């Protein structure tokens, strides 16, 4: 088995890996929002209350905690029919419309709803790439996607690399999987789960900050809020597709082989 896995990827598998890396290297949410709205992102920064910046992490972690509840409790078995992509976009647009009307005060509600919508979409993508979404490790891999879409200006290429982020999260994900398998979510405030949410939230919060700044522009209204949420959803769908293509290839060829090829692309 090791000798077979030692061969480099070729043909369709290599093309799939190239596509995955392209998706995982996509522009930030800021760039996508600028392209979609046709206005400087910096406009929104000025409308954010100073005190709000300190709340972003709390709002992000609360949304992720609710998403974790959904991932563990509410998801169906492997054979369950997937929702359509259009359903996810309509739901995200509706949530963003509420945020667009009520502005920053509605961010907590909007984010809680849109994060679960995104997680449902991410799980459908995982299933389409051969994952068993009834497995707790797969469900946590879906939650892990929220850490892949955020890049800080203080980050460097080493810190933001796809495999570097996975490595940084690996112990927290493994510990959480064992904890949930033994205890479920009876003790939601357990240190293991809090640590996982905090680690994912530190990167997810970067993207939420970008979303909040864009949503803060007064002229956007409901239509602009809907557009932002669709871009938000598209961003994480791309991260999920790339993530689960890589995981599918790892199941076939082994993690070391896929990582080495990924680094060479």
Key structural traits:
single chain, 265 residues, mainly alpha, globular, disordered N terminus
Overview of this protein structure:
The protein is mainly α. It has one domain. Helices cover 74% and strands 0% of the residues. It has helices at residues 2-5, 11-24, 29-37, 42-45, 53-73, 85-102, 107-128, 136-144, 157-160, 162-183, 191-215, 221-253, 255-264. The longest helix has 33 residues, at 221-253. It is globular and about 55 Å long. The two termini are 24 Å apart. Residues 1-6, 76-84 and 92-103 have low confidence and may be disordered.
Question: What is the fold's blueprint, element by element?
Answer:
Blueprint: H1 2-5, H2 11-24, H3 29-37, H4 42-45, H5 53-73, H6 85-102, H7 107-128, H8 136-144, H9 157-160, H10 162-183, H11 191-215, H12 221-253, H13 255-264
Helix pairs in contact: 2-12, 3-12, 5-7, 5-8, 5-11, 6-7, 6-12, 7-8, 7-12, 8-10, 10-11, 12-13
Radius of gyration from CA coordinates: 18 Å
Which word captures the global form?
Answer: globular
Order of helices and strands: HHHHHHHHHHHHH
Question: How would you characterize the largest beta sheet?
Answer: none
